[in-house]
Automatic annotation (TrEMBL):
This is Endonuclease/exonuclease/phosphatase domain-containing protein.
Length: 107
């Protein structure tokens, strides 16, 4: 990952190591954003950043591909929401497709 950090030109790198042969998350960012990692797991990285003097919370999510495990991700997000009073951006792949009809291009 550090070679990608250098190639992409970012100052900082935060990683969550994979479990076995799957998973793992990486967050690349610049020093100028004053980033504090508040929480991380194999499914998300939650940060607080100062951007142009404004405090912003951001959560980068990779939802569990196993349907039975998805509730844990949502439980964590709901818990986080109870302490948030500032701007909050959630972005990622939430893996929340209910049926194949929601997809384009078939299965």
């Amino acid at each position: 990952m550090q070679s990608l950090q250098t190639s992409f030109g970012y100052d900082k790198l935060f990683t969550v190591e994979p479990e076995g042969r799957s998973g793992g998350l990486a967050l690349f960012y610049f020093d100028s954003f004053d980033v504090t990692v508040l929480f991380s797991s194999n499914r998300m990285i939650d940060i607080e950043a100062r951007i142009e003097g404004k405090k912003v919370s951001m959560t980068f999510v990779y939802g569990d591909p196993v349907t039975e495990n998805r509730g844990k991700v949502w439980d964590d997000l709901v818990q986080m929401s109870m302490t948030r009073n500032e701007n909050w951006l959630m972005v990622g792949d939430f893996n929340e497709i209910i049926s194949n009809r929601e997809k384009r291009g078939g299965r």
